[in-house]
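Worked problem 6 (solution included).
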Amino acid sequence: MKKYSPIGELSEFATGYAETLAKTTGHIACITDKDTIIAVSGGSKKEFLEQDVSTELEKLMEDKEVYTSKENSDMAMPITKNDKSEKKYNSQIVYPIISNGDTIGTVILMSKDTNTKMNEVEKKVAQSAATFLASQMEI
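Solution. The predicted structure is:
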């Protein structure tokens, strides 16, 4: 039996949204539910799609926190349980998808480019995506 995921019902829709995010921002875009990555664009599907989310990402969802890698430095949060502590991403934004007061997933923008910095524009794009996906759950 597979665990029920409210955002998983939107996986086809989430895939299209991830593709749009990746094309618009030029970054890797991932959309997760509480347990796994359900949509990826701009990066390796094999590396992310249907992988379990990391303990750090679960904690972030639990706390309903928005995460931007500190000053876009070398510290990037592991996204999947398979991520070792090696530094793969130079900058990240993780935005929780909150529906009816509960976190049901995240929108993640990442970049491997050493010169890329996430700024307010990327933060707003991730926030818009998270808000929109949450609103789809409430319909």
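Discussion: The mean pLDDT is 86.
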